[in-house]
Amino acid sequence: MSDKPSKSASAMIVRPRRSAPVLVCRKCLKRSDEGREVRRALKSELKARKGDDTKPAKLVMIGCFGLCPKRSIVVASGASLARQEYVLVADGEQVPRALALLSGEEGS
What we know:
alpha+beta
């Protein structure tokens, strides 16, 4: 028998034990004076929000979203992208509300 998957294998859905990732514009983080503070606040807030049986969501640095705000950092999630919404964060104090907006817990 071969260890190779058969060509007739069907696609599968896999659900991770981790919450959905949060996407952050690397360029905004680098350019912002508050970038380090916001990154640290995002990571700690994601750890604090983890469920009992799930791992905390990953913070994923990505390329430019193309919005390029002057004094903010662009943050998004899969759910917010499906709604065609982005959240702008100016400092670490705005992170809890930003994560609530990303998950759809709060209206805009």
